[in-house]
Amino acid sequence: MSELEPQMQSSDPIGALHKMSMTAGVATQDYVAINSFAVTAAVLGLATSLAFVGVFFLIIGLTALICGVWSLWKIHTSNGTQGGKGLAWLGIVLSVVFAGTVLANHIRQQHAESAEAQKVTQLVKQFGDFIVAGNHPAAYALLDPEFKARVTLDQFIQVWTNQQAADRFGPLREMYGNDCVQFSPPIGDGGLMAYTYGILHFQNYRDRDRRLTMAFQKSPEGAWRVNQMVELFEPRRRSQRAAQPQ
To answer: Which residue, 4, 18, 170, 200, is most buried by CB atoms nearer than 10 A?
Structure first.
């Protein structure tokens, strides 16, 4: 009986080894390690969305980009022992998209603020030119309705007349903005306010400039109007704040 006969050993041991090598690594391919930097890149890429809350969080997007690129290089040089390319690319794409959107919005806002700041500065100069020329009604027309509700035209003229009649100051020679305008709330929101200092040069007050704290409000039609001139028309409110205990 043939099954009782001793089995003949293969005369080609090299061939047998070859057959073994064709399947030796199949089982191990199911256990490729996921690169930890790829996972980190994906998590940080998603966290880059925090940059919409504050530009400071853009550092997260930069970290995600670095981790993603580093993990791709490690995966490429691992000879197939590491995986996670999809996670790495996900982190890179998310960080670039979120960071790029935030930066683009920030740049647009900076341009918008610069344009609005120029309008406010021009308004200060225009207001000062009217006062210097003695055209108080034209200067009064640059006030917003809230200011006009607090101060009548006669009161407005009286304050500026008294200010320039004082021996200490004398006539106003020039008035302009200090090129530093702050906005609240940020550009794009409703009820926009702007704040700056008006620099005043009086004839008898040449030793130093006098600063006038000014607030401006933007109308729904888009025109800026003077809302406050604190040192001249808000003396009571200012003295009350000074009298309050600290």
So the answer is: 200
